Amino acid sequence: MSTNNIDTELSALKDAVAVALEYAKKLGTSAAEVAISKQQGLSVSTREKEVETVEFNKDGALGITVYRDGCKGSSSTSDLSPDAIAIAVKAANDIAKYTSSDPFSGLADKELMAQTIRDLDLYHPQDISPDELAQLAIRAEEASLSVDERVQHSDGATANAHTAAKVYGNSHGFLNGYCSSRYSLSCVVIGEEADGNMQRDYDYTIARKYNELMTPESVGLLAANKTVNRLNARKIPTSNLPVLFSPEIATGLIGHLIGAISGSSLYRKSSFLQDSINTQLFPDWFSIEENPHMVGALASANYDSEGVATQQRQIIDRGQLETYLLTSYSARKLSLPNTGHAGGIYNWTLSHSGQTFDELIKQMGTGLIVTEVMGQGVNMVTGDYSRGAAGFYVENGEIQYPVEEITIAGNLKDMFMGVQAVAKDQDLRSSIRTGGILLSEMKIAGS
């Protein structure tokens, strides 16, 4: 598959957005915004070292939203011919005539539009054939099956290569677009003891640049070792213990913070962090910084999905909540400034307390490492948290045995304030960059 041509389409996509905006203007709309994206990618999955699926995709669509005196109408088209775009714009305009007026709807304010467009180094096309991707997946499987005689089967490996071009424009005169690339490889492994006890685990790598992926052998070995370590898991007695979230699970914990301080949750009164600006949520050594302009990172952007300029900011400063995450709509509903978070967050980095993850295990003494959570037992209105979990029991700073079929419970406010330490060895594979997080105590329901 050649991924070299997605950038050649960028100019045509900008032209299509400009055409749509011009049509909307001719119809006498109050305002309009247009977003268009085109993606193409190749995904190859293998199982037991045999190719199982090869999927190639190339798709995209233009979405137009028009505003007429507070009324909003939206439509979309995958046909980018001028006639099709005109039909889509007219459809959106017709819909707006029948919707109710909402004084909070409309474009983000003109002065918030991004003026400076930096080169964030997000696009690295690579010519990759299905055979090359298949070999990556097979090599990961082969490595995973060489680790331990209890690992006789792979549950599959998948290698992906994707590129995208995105353009956004509105009737403020903002019109910009960019290309991006993303490559990944994952491997899932099954382990089985002689008595039939079975476990599975996985590992993965993801990067903007193809040559920055971990080697397939590394991915396979990590997946296999994680699986072997989970064999012969057992329950532990019900108790209150310190809990150390692995980095993958720690990102989920911070994800609950994101949900609670997002504008839509706040104006619907469905957040346990209502009216919490300048409130101490975490210990005073703890901070979270957002850096949207980090070169080459997975969650970098010059502007959000409304064209609002992104900016470096403190989300948590010395434990205190500094900002909510607001779009133009939620900002107006709450009578607060727009923070440029339409479409998500941008490279959150947690402060750390100086220890490695292994050092935190020793510091914890006796407690529980959580490497997997299950279920949806989080009440975002009250902050109550209760989820199935698996991991490892620790005693005297040493891992004793794997644990499964337990429940961990607490309240997110208490959990946030109970953060004892954050490991310095960070997981950089998502928009939340953090090491493992040690909590002072949670309720463990076991045997």
TrEMBL record:
Family: Belongs to the peptidase U62 family.
Domain Metalloprotease TldD/E central: 123-231
Domain Metalloprotease TldD/E N-terminal: 32-96
Positions of the Metalloprotease TldD/E C-terminal domain: 239-446
SUPFAM superfamilies (alphabetical): Putative modulator of DNA gyrase, PmbA/TldD
Primary enzyme class: hydrolase
Identification of the protein by name: Metalloprotease PmbA
Originating gene: pmbA
EC number(s) stated in the UniProt entry for this protein: 3.4.24.-
